[in-house]
Amino acid sequence: MTTSIRTCELSKQYRRSLILDDLNLEVPEGSIFGLVGPNGAGKTTTIKILMNLIQPTSGRAEVVGRDSRHLRSADFERIGYVSENQEMPDWMTVDQFLAYLRPFYTRWDNAIAAEMVKRFELPRNRKLRHLSRGMWMKAALASTLAYRPELLVLDEPFSGLDPLMRDDFIQGILHQAGETTILISSHDLADIESFASHIAFLDGGRLRFSEEMESLSKRFREVQVSVADGAQGSTDWPEDWLLVETSGARVRFIDTRFNAERTLAEVHRRFGPVAQMAANPMPLRAIFVAMARNSQKAAAKAGTT
Amino acid sequence: MRQAFHILKKDVLYARVEICAVLALAGLYAWTSTEMKVYIVAELLLDIGAVYLIAKLIHAEKIPGDRQFWLTRPYRRSSLLAAKLLGILLLVNVPIFVARLYVLLYEGFATGAVLGPLLWSHFLLFVAVMLPMSAVASATAGLVPFTFSILALVAAALVTVVRIRPPWDLAVRLSLAGSQWMWETIAVVALIALALPVLYLQYRARRTWMSRIVIAVVGVCAIFSYLYLPWTTAAAIQTAITPRRLAAEALKVTFEPAARYFYTRGMLNRGDYQVDVPLKIDGVPRDVELIPDGISFRFEAADGTAWESGPYVYPALGKRMPGPGPAILNANVDLPPGFYSRAKGRSLKVTADVYVSLFGQPLSKTIAIQGAGVNAVDGLLCRTGPFRQLLCMAPFGWPSRIVYAQFPSGGKLPFTRFISYSPFPSGLAFDEVASRSVSYPEGERQVTIISNQPLGSFKLRFAAENFPLADFSIPIRRSSRKE
């Protein structure tokens, strides 16, 4: 598997705060890679290091085959970056902005730029500072897609966008999918779920998991079990089980490595005969919430001990 | 370079209002300098406008921060820097150049006489003012932090000067007219030394904190160098670099006891003893004029105790009878009472290094005395001024020459002997025109401007045994309040 991005024990510390902690991440070439996590998880920091906007405290990152600290101007002909808080020359009109950027790129495609302007219904003669937030992001994306980057990095592109804008934006991204590797960080899990091929979950600066969406969807199940003898509370649950709740004869938990036979055997071993077991697939949002809650619980537990 | 021009084109569009403002202010400066002769306000406005435009151009692609769009676009850093410097050169430096050229030509100077000094002045303006401004702008993220940084740097420099207490009176140092340019050169070198590494660090690697440290370190080093450069070193450098057109061996310094003279002093060094060492310098050709530049003393008593004037004491050295040929000089130095009381009445050896400059081989031109400027020798432009004054002007500083006005009736007056020996055609000062004047006799219609060329700066060694200290010293009275 060739990778567009690879990080190796990447860490970032601001004074005493450890923002990123030994991050090892691989973004396969051609993938649409969703980087998710709660606020302060380190997503933006990771992306800024990848784009050489900030320096890591330790570890290294490779982007399109080059150490991120040594990315050259020519490398940015192959990399596109759109961020929710990027400053742009807002005194330019959309047309001026695109015309200004054109000579910087050997692969700039006027047809794509025009198509994006049309698709996004961008007002060509309006200054960037007078665009709505959604239009601003679309203008940034259009200026990035026009040179067909090999790697497209999007940092929280959906925040503050209304559903229609999001849909337009996603369509714009998907237009490029296939020939471009896309790394996208977002809180908007539902949208990510609809098109991401890979997903990584970052929490407290640490990578909790990183895998293909398909295997993640197969792996996570919300399990509800009715047991014959009544469920006994315990604190010693298997590591793969999250947010275990017992109530009478019912047990409810999230199995992070679901395998019907293995899960059934474990339930049987712990609770005796099983009257009924239902394992429901989980949407990404539910997985994310479960992971986040479990982290919070673990942190609270660690705090009390 | 193509990318640099592309960025520059964008910057022109971006800062078009400020560019127009600077052009208008340059025009205003030229107009007030020529038509109104009161240009201070226009100059100040032009300075502010120029600095603001520099900051605006640099901040169009600011360096500190991690949110700027250009950081993730294929900007070549060298092209970006080239675009900024080219912008500053074309949009700030050139308009000011044109305005100043207009002022000089309007005054009546010949283009050939002003072009060299003007180009040099603008080279200095670019490397020693605009580059440091750009460097500070590149280490700041906006106009407000830039302004505060400039104010903070000025304040820090002043506080440093006050805190470290200069080893000598700066006013005394300013009296070193000939080698004054060396201190200005230190300032220029320091500003360049500050600007270049900062611009390199910022545009190459975006090391803002490192750049700020460089600014602080270079600034402190520059202040120390500026304050601690001994005048003796400056004089020695001057002696070493000045081309000589006369053999130093011909010049001889001897003790001239008959010429004793004590200069009137202020209230400095009360309690010390003012000592005069009269000197005669032979070997100066009859048509060559000697200008005394400085003297450093060592007084050594027979018991071995000694006192040296050192690098930061600048004894008064004067020539009471100006003019060409052999010179009588009086060197007055203040001896501390401790050493004086030990050395008085004993055999005393005096040694000294005497720094002098010679001027001769004159160029001359006879011109009409008239209201309209007439080009004379060495780029001088002369015309009549108010109160029967013959006013001669020079572009960017009086030339390193002793210039006389000789009238047909026989009078010969020097414009000034207080001149700079700078090898550079101009300095950092913004004033385009330096002027000096002499009175001309009534009825004179012509004047010959004579310019004595520099023949070299020399360090002469003087030594005298058995110097009669008591006969050549007077006490410097304490203030009456203390008495």
Task: Give short descriptive properties of this protein.
heterodimer; A: 305 residues; alpha/beta; 6-stranded mixed sheet; 30% strand; B: alpha+beta; 6-stranded antiparallel sheet; globular
Structure write-up:
- The complex is a heterodimer of chains A (305) and B (483).
- Chain A is an alpha/beta fold.
- Chain A is 33% helix and 30% strand.
- Chain A is built from nine helices and 14 strands.
- In chain A, the strands form three sheets. A six-stranded mixed β-sheet of chain A has the order 6-7-8-3-9-10, with helices on both faces. A four-stranded antiparallel β-sheet of chain A has the order 2-1-4-5, covered by helices on one side. In chain A, strands 12-13-11-14 form a four-stranded antiparallel β-sheet, with helices on both faces.
- The longest helix of chain A has 21 residues, at 284-304.
- Chain A starts with a strand and ends with a helix.
- The relative contact order of chain A is 0.13.
- Chain B is an alpha+beta fold.
- In chain B, 42% of the residues lie in helices and 24% in strands.
- Chain B contains eleven helices and 15 strands.
- In chain B, the strands form three sheets. In chain B, strands 4-3-7-14-11-12 form a six-stranded antiparallel β-sheet, covered by helices on one side. In chain B, strands 1, 2, 5, 6 and 15 form a five-stranded antiparallel β-sheet that branches. A four-stranded antiparallel β-sheet of chain B has the order 8-9-10-13.
- In chain B, α4 runs antiparallel to α5 (111-138) and α5 packs across α8 (180-205).
- The interface between A and B is medium-sized, with 26 and 19 residues.
